[in-house]
Amino acid sequence: GAGVSQSPSNKVTEKGKDVELRCDPISGHTALYWYRQSLGQGLEFLIYFQGNSAPDKSGLPSDRFSAERTGGSVSTLTIQRTQQEDSAVYLCASSLASRGSGYTFGSGTRLTVV
Amino acid sequence: QQQVKQSPQSLIVQKGGIPIINCAYENTAFDYFPWYQQFPGKGPALLIAIRPDVSEKKEGRFTISFNKSAKQFSLHIMDSQPGDSATYFCAATDSWGKFQFGAGTQVVVTP
Lengths: 114, 111
Hints:
The structure holds 2 protein chains of 2 kinds.
Chain A: E1 5-7, E2 10-13, E3 19-24, E4 31-37, E5 44-50, E6 65-69, E7 75-79, E8 88-95, E9 104-105, E10 109-113
Chain B: E1 4-7, E2 10-14, E3 20-25, E4 33-38, E5 45-50, E6 56-59, E7 62-67, E8 72-77, E9 86-92, E10 100-101, E11 105-110
Parallel strand pairs in B: 2-11
Antiparallel strand pairs in B: 1-3, 3-8, 4-5, 4-9, 6-7, 7-8, 9-10, 9-11
Protein backbone atom coordinates (compact mmCIF):
# COMPACT_ATOMS: atom_id res chain seq x y z
CA GLY A 1 0.00 0.00 0.00
CA ALA A 2 0.87 3.66 -0.09
CA GLY A 3 1.58 3.90 3.59
CA VAL A 4 1.79 1.90 6.81
CA SER A 5 -1.67 0.80 7.83
CA GLN A 6 -2.60 -0.04 11.41
CA SER A 7 -5.79 -1.50 12.75
CA PRO A 8 -7.83 -0.92 14.71
CA SER A 9 -7.29 2.81 15.09
CA ASN A 10 -8.85 2.70 18.54
CA LYS A 11 -9.34 -0.19 20.94
CA VAL A 12 -10.98 -0.16 24.35
CA THR A 13 -10.60 -3.35 26.32
CA GLU A 14 -11.25 -4.57 29.81
CA LYS A 15 -8.38 -5.23 32.15
CA GLY A 16 -7.29 -8.85 31.88
CA LYS A 17 -8.40 -9.36 28.27
CA ASP A 18 -6.02 -10.11 25.42
CA VAL A 19 -5.70 -7.74 22.46
CA GLU A 20 -4.18 -8.01 18.99
CA LEU A 21 -2.95 -5.01 17.06
CA ARG A 22 -2.22 -5.28 13.36
CA CYS A 23 0.31 -3.56 11.15
CA ASP A 24 0.47 -3.65 7.33
CA PRO A 25 3.86 -2.23 6.29
CA ILE A 26 4.69 -0.60 2.99
CA SER A 27 5.12 -3.22 0.30
CA GLY A 28 8.80 -4.09 -0.13
CA HIS A 29 9.90 -2.74 3.24
CA THR A 30 11.93 -5.46 4.88
CA ALA A 31 12.17 -3.90 8.33
CA LEU A 32 9.23 -3.45 10.69
CA TYR A 33 9.22 -1.82 14.11
CA TRP A 34 6.76 -1.47 16.95
CA TYR A 35 6.88 1.49 19.34
CA ARG A 36 4.71 2.56 22.22
CA GLN A 37 3.89 6.17 23.01
CA SER A 38 2.21 7.07 26.28
CA LEU A 39 0.29 10.34 26.48
CA GLY A 40 2.65 13.24 25.88
CA GLN A 41 5.68 10.98 26.04
CA GLY A 42 8.41 9.85 23.70
CA LEU A 43 8.75 6.75 21.57
CA GLU A 44 9.42 3.56 23.48
CA PHE A 45 10.96 0.84 21.30
CA LEU A 46 9.26 -2.55 21.60
CA ILE A 47 10.39 -4.94 18.86
CA TYR A 48 12.13 -4.95 15.48
CA PHE A 49 11.83 -7.41 12.58
CA GLN A 50 14.38 -7.44 9.77
CA GLY A 51 13.84 -9.87 6.93
CA ASN A 52 14.27 -13.46 8.04
CA SER A 53 16.50 -12.62 10.97
CA ALA A 54 15.46 -13.33 14.54
CA PRO A 55 13.53 -10.33 15.83
CA ASP A 56 15.07 -7.89 18.29
CA LYS A 57 12.71 -8.21 21.25
CA SER A 58 14.83 -6.22 23.65
CA GLY A 59 12.18 -3.54 24.19
CA LEU A 60 9.23 -5.74 25.13
CA PRO A 61 8.27 -4.67 28.67
CA SER A 62 7.05 -8.05 29.89
CA ASP A 63 6.28 -11.57 28.74
CA ARG A 64 2.65 -10.48 28.27
CA PHE A 65 3.81 -8.79 25.07
CA SER A 66 4.62 -10.73 21.92
CA ALA A 67 4.71 -10.04 18.21
CA GLU A 68 4.99 -11.98 15.02
CA ARG A 69 5.48 -11.13 11.42
CA THR A 70 4.02 -13.54 8.89
CA GLY A 71 5.50 -13.94 5.42
CA GLY A 72 7.77 -10.98 5.93
CA SER A 73 4.82 -8.61 5.69
CA VAL A 74 1.94 -8.16 8.12
CA SER A 75 2.76 -8.04 11.82
CA THR A 76 0.59 -8.60 14.86
CA LEU A 77 1.40 -7.30 18.33
CA THR A 78 -0.37 -9.27 21.05
CA ILE A 79 -0.81 -8.10 24.61
CA GLN A 80 -2.09 -10.75 26.99
CA ARG A 81 -3.91 -10.06 30.25
CA THR A 82 -3.94 -6.33 29.60
CA GLN A 83 -3.24 -3.93 32.46
CA GLN A 84 -4.19 -0.28 32.79
CA GLU A 85 -0.54 0.73 32.37
CA ASP A 86 -0.67 -0.78 28.88
CA SER A 87 -2.89 2.11 27.80
CA ALA A 88 -0.97 4.00 25.13
CA VAL A 89 -0.69 4.55 21.40
CA TYR A 90 1.06 1.67 19.68
CA LEU A 91 2.91 2.78 16.57
CA CYS A 92 4.21 0.60 13.79
CA ALA A 93 6.87 1.72 11.32
CA SER A 94 8.54 0.12 8.34
CA SER A 95 11.65 0.87 6.33
CA LEU A 96 13.79 -0.46 3.54
CA ALA A 97 16.50 -1.06 6.15
CA SER A 98 19.04 0.21 3.67
CA ARG A 99 21.58 2.85 4.46
CA GLY A 100 19.89 6.20 4.84
CA SER A 101 16.30 5.02 4.64
CA GLY A 102 13.99 6.56 7.17
CA TYR A 103 11.08 5.01 8.97
CA THR A 104 7.52 5.47 7.75
CA PHE A 105 5.11 5.36 10.66
CA GLY A 106 1.48 4.39 10.69
CA SER A 107 -1.08 6.49 12.54
CA GLY A 108 -1.08 4.11 15.46
CA THR A 109 -3.60 2.19 17.53
CA ARG A 110 -4.84 3.97 20.63
CA LEU A 111 -5.32 1.30 23.28
CA THR A 112 -7.35 2.07 26.37
CA VAL A 113 -7.57 -0.52 29.14
CA VAL A 114 -10.47 0.08 31.50
CA GLN B 1 20.09 4.69 28.90
CA GLN B 2 18.95 7.22 26.32
CA GLN B 3 21.49 7.24 23.50
CA VAL B 4 20.17 10.50 22.06
CA LYS B 5 19.52 13.39 24.44
CA GLN B 6 17.08 16.02 23.23
CA SER B 7 16.33 19.47 24.64
CA PRO B 8 14.32 21.43 25.48
CA GLN B 9 11.29 19.37 26.42
CA SER B 10 9.00 22.15 25.22
CA LEU B 11 9.19 25.66 23.88
CA ILE B 12 6.87 28.45 22.87
CA VAL B 13 7.69 31.03 20.22
CA GLN B 14 5.78 33.74 18.48
CA LYS B 15 4.97 33.50 14.80
CA GLY B 16 8.07 34.40 12.80
CA GLY B 17 10.44 33.30 15.57
CA ILE B 18 13.06 30.58 15.19
CA PRO B 19 12.58 27.63 17.53
CA ILE B 20 15.79 25.66 17.98
CA ILE B 21 15.86 22.06 19.19
CA ASN B 22 19.12 20.43 20.19
CA CYS B 23 20.22 16.81 20.26
CA ALA B 24 23.41 15.16 21.46
CA TYR B 25 24.69 11.62 21.01
CA GLU B 26 27.63 9.50 22.15
CA ASN B 27 27.85 6.64 19.67
CA THR B 28 30.35 7.63 16.97
CA ALA B 29 29.02 4.81 14.78
CA PHE B 30 25.84 6.81 14.18
CA ASP B 31 25.83 8.15 10.64
CA TYR B 32 22.24 9.08 9.82
CA PHE B 33 20.33 11.71 11.77
CA PRO B 34 16.66 12.27 10.89
CA TRP B 35 14.10 14.57 12.43
CA TYR B 36 10.46 13.59 12.74
CA GLN B 37 7.41 15.83 13.13
CA GLN B 38 4.32 14.56 14.90
CA PHE B 39 0.91 16.20 15.00
CA PRO B 40 -1.67 15.12 17.60
CA GLY B 41 -3.37 11.88 16.67
CA LYS B 42 -0.88 11.11 13.91
CA GLY B 43 2.26 9.04 13.66
CA PRO B 44 5.62 10.80 13.36
CA ALA B 45 6.56 11.80 9.82
CA LEU B 46 10.06 12.21 8.45
CA LEU B 47 10.85 15.92 8.14
CA ILE B 48 14.51 16.20 7.19
CA ALA B 49 17.67 14.16 7.68
CA ILE B 50 21.42 14.70 7.56
CA ARG B 51 24.59 12.68 7.27
CA PRO B 52 27.75 13.62 9.19
CA ASP B 53 29.68 14.51 6.03
CA VAL B 54 27.84 17.85 5.84
CA SER B 55 27.46 20.54 8.48
CA GLU B 56 24.13 21.94 7.39
CA LYS B 57 21.09 20.95 5.39
CA LYS B 58 18.07 23.06 4.48
CA GLU B 59 14.67 21.99 3.27
CA GLY B 60 12.24 24.85 3.00
CA ARG B 61 12.05 26.58 6.37
CA PHE B 62 13.70 23.67 8.21
CA THR B 63 17.47 23.57 8.74
CA ILE B 64 19.63 20.95 10.42
CA SER B 65 22.99 22.03 11.78
CA PHE B 66 25.48 19.26 12.51
CA ASN B 67 28.63 19.43 14.62
CA LYS B 68 30.47 16.14 14.28
CA SER B 69 33.26 16.94 16.73
CA ALA B 70 30.78 17.93 19.43
CA LYS B 71 28.44 15.06 18.53
CA GLN B 72 25.53 17.45 18.43
CA PHE B 73 22.89 18.38 15.90
CA SER B 74 20.02 20.80 15.95
CA LEU B 75 16.84 21.71 14.11
CA HIS B 76 15.97 25.32 13.33
CA ILE B 77 12.52 26.30 12.10
CA MET B 78 12.84 29.58 10.20
CA ASP B 79 9.92 32.02 10.09
CA SER B 80 7.87 29.66 12.24
CA GLN B 81 4.12 29.47 11.67
CA PRO B 82 1.28 28.28 13.91
CA GLY B 83 0.96 25.25 11.63
CA ASP B 84 4.46 24.20 12.74
CA SER B 85 3.11 23.54 16.25
CA ALA B 86 3.88 19.88 16.79
CA THR B 87 6.18 17.50 18.63
CA TYR B 88 9.59 17.06 17.08
CA PHE B 89 11.81 14.02 17.58
CA CYS B 90 15.46 13.71 16.65
CA ALA B 91 16.92 10.30 15.97
CA ALA B 92 20.17 8.60 15.11
CA THR B 93 21.16 5.27 13.64
CA ASP B 94 24.23 3.41 12.46
CA SER B 95 22.71 2.81 9.03
CA TRP B 96 21.55 -0.73 9.43
CA GLY B 97 20.32 -0.65 12.98
CA LYS B 98 17.17 0.58 14.62
CA PHE B 99 16.77 4.27 15.29
CA GLN B 100 17.52 5.76 18.67
CA PHE B 101 14.98 8.53 19.28
CA GLY B 102 15.25 11.57 21.48
CA ALA B 103 12.54 12.21 24.04
CA GLY B 104 10.76 14.78 21.88
CA THR B 105 10.19 18.53 22.00
CA GLN B 106 6.73 20.06 21.98
CA VAL B 107 6.82 23.27 19.95
CA VAL B 108 4.02 25.81 20.16
CA VAL B 109 3.99 28.74 17.74
CA THR B 110 1.61 31.46 18.84
CA PRO B 111 -0.13 33.68 16.28
